[in-house]
Write a structure and sequence with these properties.
The structure is a single chain. This protein is of the alpha+beta class. The chain has three domains: 15-45 and 380-570, Multidrug efflux transporter AcrB transmembrane fold (Up-down Bundle), CATH 1.20.1640; 52-123, Alpha-Beta Plaits (2-Layer Sandwich), CATH 3.30.70.3220; 124-354, no CATH class. Helices cover 50% and strands 15% of the residues. The protein has 19 helices and 13 strands. A five-stranded mixed beta barrel has the order 4-6-5-11-10, surrounded by four helices. A four-stranded antiparallel sheet has the order 2-3-1-13. A hairpin with a 6-residue loop joins strand 8 (276-283) and strand 9 (290-296). Helix 2 packs parallel to helix 13 (412-438), helix 12 packs antiparallel against helix 13 (412-438) and helix 15 (478-510) runs antiparallel to helix 16 (514-544). The longest helix is centred in the last third of the chain and has 33 residues, at 478-510. The radius of gyration is 35 Å and the shape is elongated.
Length: 586
Protein backbone atom coordinates (compact mmCIF):
# COMPACT_ATOMS: atom_id res chain seq x y z
CA UNK A 1 0.00 0.00 0.00
CA UNK A 2 3.00 2.32 0.49
CA UNK A 3 4.16 2.21 -3.13
CA UNK A 4 1.11 3.94 -4.67
CA UNK A 5 1.44 6.80 -2.17
CA UNK A 6 5.03 7.43 -3.23
CA UNK A 7 4.01 7.64 -6.83
CA UNK A 8 1.36 10.28 -6.23
CA UNK A 9 1.49 13.80 -7.55
CA UNK A 10 3.60 16.14 -5.37
CA UNK A 11 1.97 18.46 -2.90
CA UNK A 12 0.72 21.60 -4.53
CA UNK A 13 -0.71 19.79 -7.55
CA UNK A 14 -4.13 21.04 -8.57
CA UNK A 15 -6.48 18.10 -9.06
CA UNK A 16 -9.63 20.18 -9.63
CA UNK A 17 -8.75 23.08 -11.92
CA UNK A 18 -12.40 23.59 -12.79
CA UNK A 19 -13.06 25.15 -9.39
CA UNK A 20 -10.42 27.83 -9.84
CA UNK A 21 -11.66 28.64 -13.33
CA UNK A 22 -15.24 28.85 -12.09
CA UNK A 23 -14.16 31.17 -9.27
CA UNK A 24 -12.40 33.66 -11.52
CA UNK A 25 -15.28 33.48 -14.02
CA UNK A 26 -17.77 34.35 -11.27
CA UNK A 27 -15.54 37.23 -10.13
CA UNK A 28 -15.30 38.58 -13.69
CA UNK A 29 -19.06 38.40 -14.21
CA UNK A 30 -19.77 40.03 -10.82
CA UNK A 31 -17.31 42.88 -11.36
CA UNK A 32 -18.49 43.50 -14.91
CA UNK A 33 -22.12 43.45 -13.78
CA UNK A 34 -21.30 45.87 -10.98
CA UNK A 35 -19.61 48.18 -13.48
CA UNK A 36 -22.69 48.33 -15.71
CA UNK A 37 -25.04 48.56 -12.73
CA UNK A 38 -23.14 51.57 -11.37
CA UNK A 39 -23.33 53.35 -14.71
CA UNK A 40 -19.56 54.02 -14.69
CA UNK A 41 -18.47 51.99 -17.70
CA UNK A 42 -15.29 53.95 -18.45
CA UNK A 43 -12.38 54.90 -16.17
CA UNK A 44 -12.36 58.45 -14.87
CA UNK A 45 -9.63 60.43 -16.61
CA UNK A 46 -7.12 62.76 -14.98
CA UNK A 47 -6.69 66.43 -15.76
CA UNK A 48 -4.04 65.76 -18.41
CA UNK A 49 -6.40 63.48 -20.36
CA UNK A 50 -9.88 64.90 -19.69
CA UNK A 51 -9.09 68.49 -18.74
CA UNK A 52 -10.28 70.15 -15.55
CA UNK A 53 -9.83 73.25 -13.46
CA UNK A 54 -6.61 75.01 -12.46
CA UNK A 55 -6.78 77.37 -9.47
CA UNK A 56 -4.04 79.82 -8.56
CA UNK A 57 -3.88 80.92 -4.92
CA UNK A 58 -1.76 83.81 -3.65
CA UNK A 59 -0.57 83.92 -0.05
CA UNK A 60 -1.25 87.08 1.92
CA UNK A 61 0.02 88.00 5.35
CA UNK A 62 -1.34 90.41 7.94
CA UNK A 63 0.30 93.86 8.12
CA UNK A 64 3.63 93.59 9.87
CA UNK A 65 3.74 89.80 9.40
CA UNK A 66 5.12 89.68 5.86
CA UNK A 67 7.84 87.23 6.95
CA UNK A 68 5.13 84.61 7.48
CA UNK A 69 5.12 84.02 3.71
CA UNK A 70 8.12 81.70 3.70
CA UNK A 71 9.05 78.32 2.30
CA UNK A 72 8.14 76.41 5.46
CA UNK A 73 4.63 77.84 5.74
CA UNK A 74 4.03 77.47 2.01
CA UNK A 75 5.00 73.80 2.07
CA UNK A 76 2.79 73.27 5.12
CA UNK A 77 -0.10 74.94 3.30
CA UNK A 78 0.47 72.74 0.23
CA UNK A 79 0.25 69.61 2.36
CA UNK A 80 -2.94 70.74 4.11
CA UNK A 81 -4.66 71.88 0.90
CA UNK A 82 -3.73 68.61 -0.80
CA UNK A 83 -5.21 66.58 2.05
CA UNK A 84 -8.32 68.72 2.03
CA UNK A 85 -8.87 68.40 -1.73
CA UNK A 86 -8.14 64.67 -1.66
CA UNK A 87 -10.13 64.19 1.55
CA UNK A 88 -12.88 62.49 -0.45
CA UNK A 89 -10.48 59.90 -1.92
CA UNK A 90 -7.68 59.46 -4.45
CA UNK A 91 -8.83 62.28 -6.72
CA UNK A 92 -5.41 62.80 -8.38
CA UNK A 93 -5.51 66.52 -7.68
CA UNK A 94 -2.16 68.28 -7.99
CA UNK A 95 -1.11 70.89 -5.44
CA UNK A 96 2.27 72.58 -5.79
CA UNK A 97 3.99 75.89 -5.14
CA UNK A 98 4.85 78.32 -7.92
CA UNK A 99 7.34 81.00 -7.04
CA UNK A 100 7.49 82.40 -3.54
CA UNK A 101 3.84 83.14 -2.79
CA UNK A 102 1.62 81.19 -5.21
CA UNK A 103 0.07 77.74 -5.00
CA UNK A 104 -1.33 75.99 -8.08
CA UNK A 105 -4.17 73.49 -7.62
CA UNK A 106 -5.18 71.30 -10.59
CA UNK A 107 -8.52 69.50 -10.19
CA UNK A 108 -9.45 66.81 -12.78
CA UNK A 109 -12.81 67.00 -14.49
CA UNK A 110 -15.39 64.70 -12.92
CA UNK A 111 -14.04 65.11 -9.38
CA UNK A 112 -17.01 67.23 -8.19
CA UNK A 113 -15.18 70.42 -9.09
CA UNK A 114 -17.55 72.74 -7.24
CA UNK A 115 -16.98 70.98 -3.93
CA UNK A 116 -13.23 70.75 -4.51
CA UNK A 117 -13.05 74.47 -5.35
CA UNK A 118 -14.87 75.27 -2.11
CA UNK A 119 -12.35 73.15 -0.22
CA UNK A 120 -9.50 75.01 -1.92
CA UNK A 121 -11.03 78.44 -1.42
CA UNK A 122 -11.60 78.05 2.30
CA UNK A 123 -7.98 78.51 3.34
CA UNK A 124 -8.11 80.78 6.41
CA UNK A 125 -7.70 79.91 10.06
CA UNK A 126 -10.30 77.79 11.83
CA UNK A 127 -11.73 79.03 15.15
CA UNK A 128 -14.34 77.95 17.68
CA UNK A 129 -16.24 81.02 18.92
CA UNK A 130 -19.15 81.20 21.40
CA UNK A 131 -22.42 82.42 19.89
CA UNK A 132 -23.69 85.59 21.60
CA UNK A 133 -26.76 86.12 19.45
CA UNK A 134 -28.13 85.21 16.06
CA UNK A 135 -30.63 86.86 13.72
CA UNK A 136 -32.08 86.54 10.26
CA UNK A 137 -29.52 87.15 7.54
CA UNK A 138 -31.22 90.20 6.09
CA UNK A 139 -30.21 93.68 7.34
CA UNK A 140 -32.39 95.29 10.05
CA UNK A 141 -33.74 98.81 9.74
CA UNK A 142 -33.54 101.28 12.64
CA UNK A 143 -36.10 100.86 15.40
CA UNK A 144 -39.20 102.32 13.78
CA UNK A 145 -41.64 99.47 14.03
CA UNK A 146 -43.59 98.31 17.08
CA UNK A 147 -41.64 96.01 19.31
CA UNK A 148 -43.79 93.06 18.44
CA UNK A 149 -43.15 93.26 14.74
CA UNK A 150 -40.45 90.85 13.63
CA UNK A 151 -37.80 92.12 11.28
CA UNK A 152 -37.94 89.05 9.11
CA UNK A 153 -39.66 85.75 8.92
CA UNK A 154 -38.09 83.52 11.54
CA UNK A 155 -36.45 80.40 10.31
CA UNK A 156 -37.00 77.03 11.88
CA UNK A 157 -35.05 76.01 14.94
CA UNK A 158 -31.79 74.23 14.22
CA UNK A 159 -30.71 71.17 16.14
CA UNK A 160 -27.13 70.57 17.17
CA UNK A 161 -24.97 70.11 14.15
CA UNK A 162 -26.85 72.43 11.82
CA UNK A 163 -25.26 75.63 10.62
CA UNK A 164 -27.47 78.16 12.33
CA UNK A 165 -30.18 78.67 14.89
CA UNK A 166 -33.53 80.38 15.18
CA UNK A 167 -33.12 84.14 14.87
CA UNK A 168 -33.62 85.67 18.28
CA UNK A 169 -33.34 89.41 17.76
CA UNK A 170 -36.02 91.70 16.30
CA UNK A 171 -35.38 95.02 14.62
CA UNK A 172 -36.35 97.10 17.66
CA UNK A 173 -34.65 95.02 20.33
CA UNK A 174 -31.50 94.12 18.38
CA UNK A 175 -29.42 97.04 19.67
CA UNK A 176 -30.13 96.11 23.28
CA UNK A 177 -29.41 92.41 22.62
CA UNK A 178 -26.12 93.18 20.90
CA UNK A 179 -25.06 95.55 23.66
CA UNK A 180 -25.83 93.02 26.39
CA UNK A 181 -24.13 90.23 24.42
CA UNK A 182 -20.99 92.29 24.00
CA UNK A 183 -20.85 92.99 27.72
CA UNK A 184 -20.59 89.23 28.16
CA UNK A 185 -17.17 89.34 26.55
CA UNK A 186 -15.72 91.31 29.50
CA UNK A 187 -13.98 89.93 32.57
CA UNK A 188 -17.23 88.91 34.30
CA UNK A 189 -17.48 85.09 34.03
CA UNK A 190 -19.92 84.25 31.25
CA UNK A 191 -20.43 81.63 28.56
CA UNK A 192 -17.82 83.23 26.39
CA UNK A 193 -15.07 83.32 29.01
CA UNK A 194 -11.95 81.66 27.83
CA UNK A 195 -10.56 78.32 28.94
CA UNK A 196 -7.03 79.69 29.29
CA UNK A 197 -5.55 83.00 30.44
CA UNK A 198 -4.06 83.55 27.01
CA UNK A 199 -7.42 83.55 25.25
CA UNK A 200 -9.50 85.02 28.05
CA UNK A 201 -11.56 88.10 27.44
CA UNK A 202 -9.63 90.31 29.84
CA UNK A 203 -9.17 94.05 29.42
CA UNK A 204 -5.83 93.29 27.84
CA UNK A 205 -7.47 91.12 25.16
CA UNK A 206 -10.41 93.39 24.43
CA UNK A 207 -8.58 96.65 24.84
CA UNK A 208 -10.42 98.46 27.67
CA UNK A 209 -13.44 97.84 29.89
CA UNK A 210 -16.85 98.54 28.41
CA UNK A 211 -17.33 101.55 30.66
CA UNK A 212 -14.69 103.56 28.83
CA UNK A 213 -15.61 105.71 25.83
CA UNK A 214 -13.41 103.68 23.49
CA UNK A 215 -15.14 100.46 24.53
CA UNK A 216 -18.55 102.08 24.04
CA UNK A 217 -17.48 103.27 20.60
CA UNK A 218 -16.32 99.78 19.57
CA UNK A 219 -19.53 98.30 20.95
CA UNK A 220 -21.67 100.72 18.98
CA UNK A 221 -19.61 100.10 15.84
CA UNK A 222 -20.02 96.34 16.13
CA UNK A 223 -23.70 96.78 16.93
CA UNK A 224 -24.17 98.85 13.78
CA UNK A 225 -22.16 96.36 11.73
CA UNK A 226 -24.32 93.49 12.97
CA UNK A 227 -27.54 95.39 12.22
CA UNK A 228 -26.53 96.39 8.71
CA UNK A 229 -24.93 93.06 7.76
CA UNK A 230 -26.71 91.49 4.82
CA UNK A 231 -25.78 87.81 4.62
CA UNK A 232 -27.76 87.48 1.41
CA UNK A 233 -25.02 89.46 -0.33
CA UNK A 234 -22.00 87.21 -1.15
CA UNK A 235 -19.58 90.16 -0.94
CA UNK A 236 -20.77 91.12 2.55
CA UNK A 237 -20.57 87.49 3.67
CA UNK A 238 -16.95 87.31 2.55
CA UNK A 239 -15.96 90.65 4.10
CA UNK A 240 -17.84 90.17 7.40
CA UNK A 241 -15.01 88.64 9.42
CA UNK A 242 -11.96 89.93 7.57
CA UNK A 243 -9.01 91.30 9.55
CA UNK A 244 -10.57 90.43 12.91
CA UNK A 245 -8.22 89.23 15.62
CA UNK A 246 -9.11 85.99 17.40
CA UNK A 247 -9.29 87.84 20.73
CA UNK A 248 -11.98 90.24 19.49
CA UNK A 249 -15.73 89.69 19.02
CA UNK A 250 -16.95 89.65 15.46
CA UNK A 251 -19.91 89.07 13.18
CA UNK A 252 -20.28 86.26 10.65
CA UNK A 253 -22.78 84.61 8.35
CA UNK A 254 -23.84 80.98 8.20
CA UNK A 255 -26.08 79.02 5.85
CA UNK A 256 -28.69 77.08 7.80
CA UNK A 257 -30.29 75.62 4.65
CA UNK A 258 -29.72 76.08 0.92
CA UNK A 259 -30.35 79.76 0.25
CA UNK A 260 -31.28 80.54 3.88
CA UNK A 261 -28.69 82.59 5.74
CA UNK A 262 -28.42 83.74 9.33
CA UNK A 263 -25.99 86.21 10.89
CA UNK A 264 -24.15 85.69 14.13
CA UNK A 265 -22.60 87.87 16.78
CA UNK A 266 -19.65 85.86 18.07
CA UNK A 267 -17.39 86.23 21.08
CA UNK A 268 -13.59 85.95 21.10
CA UNK A 269 -12.16 82.66 19.83
CA UNK A 270 -11.89 80.10 22.61
CA UNK A 271 -10.32 77.21 20.67
CA UNK A 272 -8.01 77.34 17.64
CA UNK A 273 -8.27 75.01 14.67
CA UNK A 274 -4.81 73.66 15.47
CA UNK A 275 -6.22 72.30 18.73
CA UNK A 276 -8.22 69.72 16.74
CA UNK A 277 -6.23 66.51 16.51
CA UNK A 278 -8.64 64.58 14.29
CA UNK A 279 -12.21 64.71 13.01
CA UNK A 280 -14.12 62.20 10.95
CA UNK A 281 -17.68 61.46 9.89
CA UNK A 282 -19.47 58.27 10.89
CA UNK A 283 -22.79 56.68 11.73
CA UNK A 284 -23.98 56.87 15.33
CA UNK A 285 -24.50 53.33 16.57
CA UNK A 286 -27.57 54.23 18.63
CA UNK A 287 -29.47 56.62 16.36
CA UNK A 288 -28.15 55.51 12.97
CA UNK A 289 -27.65 59.16 11.98
CA UNK A 290 -24.52 60.75 10.54
CA UNK A 291 -22.34 62.52 13.09
CA UNK A 292 -18.89 64.11 13.23
CA UNK A 293 -16.51 62.89 15.94
CA UNK A 294 -13.75 65.27 17.06
CA UNK A 295 -10.58 64.60 19.02
CA UNK A 296 -8.58 67.45 20.56
CA UNK A 297 -4.95 67.80 21.52
CA UNK A 298 -4.00 67.93 25.21
CA UNK A 299 -4.07 71.71 25.34
CA UNK A 300 -7.14 71.88 23.12
CA UNK A 301 -9.11 69.48 25.32
CA UNK A 302 -8.54 71.72 28.37
CA UNK A 303 -9.78 74.78 26.51
CA UNK A 304 -12.75 72.92 25.09
CA UNK A 305 -13.69 71.47 28.48
CA UNK A 306 -13.69 74.92 30.05
CA UNK A 307 -15.80 76.62 27.38
CA UNK A 308 -18.33 73.79 27.02
CA UNK A 309 -18.75 73.72 30.79
CA UNK A 310 -19.88 77.35 30.67
CA UNK A 311 -21.93 77.05 27.50
CA UNK A 312 -23.87 74.07 28.86
CA UNK A 313 -25.31 76.36 31.58
CA UNK A 314 -26.70 78.86 29.07
CA UNK A 315 -29.89 78.93 27.04
CA UNK A 316 -30.24 79.01 23.29
CA UNK A 317 -28.53 80.58 21.38
CA UNK A 318 -25.82 81.34 23.96
CA UNK A 319 -25.25 77.65 24.61
CA UNK A 320 -23.85 77.30 21.09
CA UNK A 321 -20.33 77.50 19.77
CA UNK A 322 -19.69 78.42 16.15
CA UNK A 323 -17.12 76.68 13.98
CA UNK A 324 -15.82 79.57 11.89
CA UNK A 325 -13.74 79.09 8.76
CA UNK A 326 -12.81 81.99 6.48
CA UNK A 327 -15.10 84.23 8.52
CA UNK A 328 -18.11 82.00 7.77
CA UNK A 329 -19.97 79.83 10.25
CA UNK A 330 -19.87 76.29 8.87
CA UNK A 331 -21.68 74.80 11.87
CA UNK A 332 -23.16 76.08 15.14
CA UNK A 333 -24.03 73.12 17.39
CA UNK A 334 -25.44 73.57 20.88
CA UNK A 335 -23.73 72.22 23.99
CA UNK A 336 -25.74 70.09 26.40
CA UNK A 337 -22.96 68.91 28.69
CA UNK A 338 -19.31 69.54 29.50
CA UNK A 339 -16.97 67.96 26.95
CA UNK A 340 -13.22 67.43 27.02
CA UNK A 341 -10.88 65.48 24.73
CA UNK A 342 -13.62 64.06 22.52
CA UNK A 343 -16.80 65.61 21.17
CA UNK A 344 -19.54 64.60 18.79
CA UNK A 345 -21.49 66.95 16.54
CA UNK A 346 -24.91 65.59 15.58
CA UNK A 347 -27.93 66.96 13.83
CA UNK A 348 -29.34 67.26 10.33
CA UNK A 349 -26.36 65.69 8.60
CA UNK A 350 -26.28 63.47 5.56
CA UNK A 351 -23.16 61.55 4.58
CA UNK A 352 -21.82 64.30 2.33
CA UNK A 353 -22.31 67.18 4.76
CA UNK A 354 -20.83 65.15 7.63
CA UNK A 355 -17.75 64.27 5.57
CA UNK A 356 -17.34 67.89 4.47
CA UNK A 357 -17.43 69.16 8.05
CA UNK A 358 -15.01 66.46 9.20
CA UNK A 359 -12.68 67.38 6.35
CA UNK A 360 -12.79 71.06 7.28
CA UNK A 361 -12.12 70.32 10.96
CA UNK A 362 -9.23 68.00 10.15
CA UNK A 363 -7.53 70.15 7.54
CA UNK A 364 -8.94 73.61 8.14
CA UNK A 365 -6.13 75.36 9.96
CA UNK A 366 -3.56 76.86 7.60
CA UNK A 367 -0.51 78.91 8.57
CA UNK A 368 -1.39 81.56 5.96
CA UNK A 369 -4.41 83.17 4.37
CA UNK A 370 -4.87 82.89 0.60
CA UNK A 371 -6.85 84.71 -2.03
CA UNK A 372 -7.89 83.21 -5.35
CA UNK A 373 -5.97 84.85 -8.19
CA UNK A 374 -7.44 82.92 -11.11
CA UNK A 375 -9.60 79.94 -11.99
CA UNK A 376 -8.87 78.51 -15.46
CA UNK A 377 -10.30 75.63 -17.44
CA UNK A 378 -7.66 73.20 -18.72
CA UNK A 379 -8.24 71.48 -22.08
CA UNK A 380 -7.22 67.91 -22.75
CA UNK A 381 -5.97 68.47 -26.31
CA UNK A 382 -2.28 67.94 -25.53
CA UNK A 383 -2.97 65.05 -23.18
CA UNK A 384 -5.26 63.46 -25.78
CA UNK A 385 -2.49 63.49 -28.36
CA UNK A 386 -0.06 62.00 -25.86
CA UNK A 387 -2.61 59.37 -24.86
CA UNK A 388 -3.13 58.40 -28.49
CA UNK A 389 0.62 58.08 -28.99
CA UNK A 390 0.93 56.04 -25.79
CA UNK A 391 -1.89 53.69 -26.81
CA UNK A 392 -0.28 53.20 -30.23
CA UNK A 393 3.03 52.39 -28.56
CA UNK A 394 1.28 50.01 -26.16
CA UNK A 395 -0.54 48.29 -29.04
CA UNK A 396 2.74 47.86 -30.94
CA UNK A 397 4.42 46.43 -27.86
CA UNK A 398 1.53 44.06 -27.20
CA UNK A 399 1.54 42.96 -30.84
CA UNK A 400 5.27 42.18 -30.70
CA UNK A 401 4.78 40.17 -27.49
CA UNK A 402 1.98 38.14 -29.09
CA UNK A 403 4.08 37.50 -32.24
CA UNK A 404 6.97 36.30 -30.09
CA UNK A 405 4.69 34.00 -28.08
CA UNK A 406 3.14 32.50 -31.21
CA UNK A 407 6.50 31.90 -32.93
CA UNK A 408 8.31 30.53 -29.90
CA UNK A 409 5.56 28.78 -27.90
CA UNK A 410 3.10 27.94 -30.69
CA UNK A 411 0.05 26.30 -29.04
CA UNK A 412 1.05 27.49 -25.59
CA UNK A 413 0.65 31.05 -26.85
CA UNK A 414 -3.14 30.51 -26.75
CA UNK A 415 -2.93 30.15 -22.96
CA UNK A 416 -0.77 33.26 -22.66
CA UNK A 417 -3.02 35.36 -24.91
CA UNK A 418 -6.15 34.24 -23.05
CA UNK A 419 -4.47 35.09 -19.73
CA UNK A 420 -3.50 38.52 -21.02
CA UNK A 421 -7.10 39.07 -22.10
CA UNK A 422 -8.43 38.14 -18.65
CA UNK A 423 -5.88 40.42 -16.98
CA UNK A 424 -6.79 43.31 -19.31
CA UNK A 425 -10.52 42.86 -18.64
CA UNK A 426 -10.06 42.80 -14.86
CA UNK A 427 -7.77 45.84 -15.00
CA UNK A 428 -10.26 47.85 -17.06
CA UNK A 429 -13.27 46.93 -14.90
CA UNK A 430 -11.45 47.71 -11.65
CA UNK A 431 -10.24 51.07 -12.96
CA UNK A 432 -13.80 51.94 -13.96
CA UNK A 433 -15.11 50.95 -10.51
CA UNK A 434 -12.32 52.63 -8.55
CA UNK A 435 -13.13 56.01 -10.12
CA UNK A 436 -16.40 56.56 -8.21
CA UNK A 437 -15.31 54.37 -5.28
CA UNK A 438 -12.06 56.06 -4.22
CA UNK A 439 -11.68 58.87 -6.76
CA UNK A 440 -9.00 57.13 -8.86
CA UNK A 441 -8.26 59.08 -12.04
CA UNK A 442 -6.43 57.57 -15.01
CA UNK A 443 -3.64 59.89 -16.16
CA UNK A 444 -0.74 59.48 -18.57
CA UNK A 445 1.66 57.94 -16.02
CA UNK A 446 -1.08 55.49 -15.03
CA UNK A 447 -1.41 54.45 -18.67
CA UNK A 448 2.37 53.89 -18.70
CA UNK A 449 2.01 51.70 -15.61
CA UNK A 450 -0.61 49.59 -17.39
CA UNK A 451 1.67 49.18 -20.42
CA UNK A 452 4.59 48.13 -18.22
CA UNK A 453 2.28 45.56 -16.62
CA UNK A 454 2.02 43.74 -19.96
CA UNK A 455 5.66 42.75 -19.66
CA UNK A 456 5.28 41.73 -16.00
CA UNK A 457 2.29 39.52 -16.79
CA UNK A 458 3.92 37.94 -19.85
CA UNK A 459 7.03 37.25 -17.78
CA UNK A 460 4.99 35.15 -15.34
CA UNK A 461 3.67 32.96 -18.17
CA UNK A 462 7.14 32.50 -19.63
CA UNK A 463 8.53 31.41 -16.24
CA UNK A 464 5.87 28.72 -15.91
CA UNK A 465 6.11 27.53 -19.52
CA UNK A 466 9.88 27.19 -19.28
CA UNK A 467 9.59 25.17 -16.08
CA UNK A 468 7.19 22.79 -17.81
CA UNK A 469 9.49 22.44 -20.80
CA UNK A 470 12.42 21.74 -18.49
CA UNK A 471 10.47 18.85 -16.99
CA UNK A 472 9.73 17.51 -20.48
CA UNK A 473 13.42 17.69 -21.34
CA UNK A 474 14.09 15.47 -18.32
CA UNK A 475 11.98 12.78 -19.94
CA UNK A 476 8.65 13.23 -18.13
CA UNK A 477 5.27 13.21 -19.78
CA UNK A 478 3.19 16.40 -19.90
CA UNK A 479 0.68 15.83 -17.07
CA UNK A 480 3.25 15.15 -14.34
CA UNK A 481 5.52 17.82 -15.86
CA UNK A 482 2.77 20.44 -15.44
CA UNK A 483 2.31 19.60 -11.76
CA UNK A 484 6.01 19.24 -10.93
CA UNK A 485 6.89 22.52 -12.64
CA UNK A 486 4.25 24.52 -10.77
CA UNK A 487 5.80 24.70 -7.24
CA UNK A 488 9.13 26.00 -8.55
CA UNK A 489 7.52 28.39 -11.02
CA UNK A 490 5.13 29.60 -8.31
CA UNK A 491 7.97 30.62 -6.01
CA UNK A 492 9.73 32.51 -8.80
CA UNK A 493 6.53 34.31 -9.83
CA UNK A 494 5.69 35.32 -6.25
CA UNK A 495 9.17 36.66 -5.57
CA UNK A 496 9.20 38.63 -8.83
CA UNK A 497 5.75 40.10 -8.25
CA UNK A 498 6.55 40.92 -4.63
CA UNK A 499 9.55 42.98 -5.73
CA UNK A 500 7.41 44.84 -8.30
CA UNK A 501 4.62 45.48 -5.78
CA UNK A 502 7.08 46.65 -3.12
CA UNK A 503 8.62 49.12 -5.57
CA UNK A 504 5.13 50.38 -6.52
CA UNK A 505 4.11 50.77 -2.87
CA UNK A 506 7.24 52.72 -1.94
CA UNK A 507 6.84 54.93 -5.01
CA UNK A 508 3.20 55.62 -4.13
CA UNK A 509 4.06 56.58 -0.53
CA UNK A 510 7.02 58.87 -1.19
CA UNK A 511 5.67 60.68 -4.27
CA UNK A 512 2.71 62.92 -5.04
CA UNK A 513 0.63 63.91 -8.04
CA UNK A 514 0.90 62.06 -11.33
CA UNK A 515 3.67 59.70 -10.25
CA UNK A 516 1.26 58.20 -7.75
CA UNK A 517 -0.97 57.25 -10.68
CA UNK A 518 1.88 55.23 -12.20
CA UNK A 519 2.64 53.53 -8.87
CA UNK A 520 -1.03 52.76 -8.15
CA UNK A 521 -1.61 51.18 -11.57
CA UNK A 522 1.62 49.19 -11.38
CA UNK A 523 0.70 47.83 -7.95
CA UNK A 524 -2.85 46.99 -9.03
CA UNK A 525 -1.77 45.12 -12.17
CA UNK A 526 0.91 43.25 -10.21
CA UNK A 527 -1.72 41.93 -7.79
CA UNK A 528 -3.95 40.99 -10.71
CA UNK A 529 -1.04 39.10 -12.29
CA UNK A 530 -0.92 36.81 -9.26
CA UNK A 531 -4.68 36.30 -9.35
CA UNK A 532 -4.68 35.47 -13.08
CA UNK A 533 -1.69 33.10 -12.93
CA UNK A 534 -3.06 31.18 -9.92
CA UNK A 535 -6.75 31.08 -10.86
CA UNK A 536 -6.61 31.02 -14.67
CA UNK A 537 -3.23 30.21 -16.27
CA UNK A 538 -2.32 27.22 -14.08
CA UNK A 539 -5.81 25.61 -14.08
CA UNK A 540 -6.14 26.12 -17.85
CA UNK A 541 -2.71 24.54 -18.37
CA UNK A 542 -3.78 21.54 -16.26
CA UNK A 543 -6.93 21.02 -18.34
CA UNK A 544 -5.16 21.36 -21.70
CA UNK A 545 -2.47 18.88 -20.60
CA UNK A 546 -5.22 16.23 -20.62
CA UNK A 547 -5.99 16.77 -24.30
CA UNK A 548 -4.38 14.75 -27.09
CA UNK A 549 -3.04 17.85 -28.87
CA UNK A 550 -0.93 18.95 -25.92
CA UNK A 551 -0.60 15.64 -24.06
CA UNK A 552 0.85 13.76 -27.03
CA UNK A 553 3.27 16.57 -27.81
CA UNK A 554 1.93 17.71 -31.20
CA UNK A 555 4.61 19.63 -33.14
CA UNK A 556 2.44 22.77 -33.05
CA UNK A 557 1.64 22.47 -29.37
CA UNK A 558 4.94 23.99 -28.29
CA UNK A 559 5.56 20.92 -26.14
CA UNK A 560 6.99 18.48 -28.70
CA UNK A 561 9.63 16.34 -26.85
CA UNK A 562 11.73 15.88 -29.97
CA UNK A 563 11.85 19.60 -30.70
CA UNK A 564 12.76 20.25 -27.06
CA UNK A 565 15.54 17.64 -27.13
CA UNK A 566 14.00 15.51 -24.39
CA UNK A 567 16.11 12.76 -22.77
CA UNK A 568 15.00 9.13 -22.95
CA UNK A 569 13.00 7.87 -19.97
CA UNK A 570 15.95 6.70 -17.84
CA UNK A 571 13.85 5.27 -15.04
CA UNK A 572 12.08 2.83 -17.34
CA UNK A 573 15.32 1.56 -18.90
CA UNK A 574 16.83 0.82 -15.49
CA UNK A 575 13.73 -1.07 -14.36
CA UNK A 576 13.74 -3.20 -17.55
CA UNK A 577 17.45 -4.08 -17.25
CA UNK A 578 17.13 -5.10 -13.63
CA UNK A 579 14.06 -7.21 -14.44
CA UNK A 580 15.89 -9.10 -17.23
CA UNK A 581 19.06 -9.65 -15.25
CA UNK A 582 17.53 -10.98 -12.06
CA UNK A 583 15.89 -14.10 -13.59
CA UNK A 584 19.14 -15.23 -15.18
CA UNK A 585 20.99 -14.82 -11.93
CA UNK A 586 18.28 -16.77 -10.22
Amino acid sequence: MAAPKKGRRPAGGQSRPGRALALILIAMVALTGGMFASGHTTPRLGIDLAGGTSITLKAKADPGQESAVNETNMNTAVGIIERRVNGLGVSEAEVQTQGRENIIVNIPRGTNEKQAREQVGTTAQLYFRPVLTVADGAPQAPAAKPSGTPSAKPSSSASAGTKSATPTATATSQGRVVSEALKATNPTPTASSSATPKASATPKATGTPTATPSADASTLALQEKFSKLNCLDPKQRTAAGERVKPTEPTVACGEEAPGQWAKYLLGPAEVDGRDVDNAKAGLDQQTGQWVVDMEFTDSGSKKFQSITGKLAQQTDPQNRFAIVLDGEVVSAPSVRQTLSANAQISGSFNQQSAQDLGNILSYGALPLAFETQSVDTVTAALGGDQLEAGLIAGAIGLGLVIIYLVVYYRGLSLIAIASLGVSALLTYVLMALLGPAIGFALNLPAVCGAIVAIGITADSFIVYFERVRDELREGRTLRPAVERAWPRARRTILVSDFVSFLAAAVLFIVTVGKVQGFAFTLGLTTLLDIVVVFLFTKPLMTLLARTKFFGNGHPWSGLDPKRLGAKPPLRRSRRVSSATVDPKEA
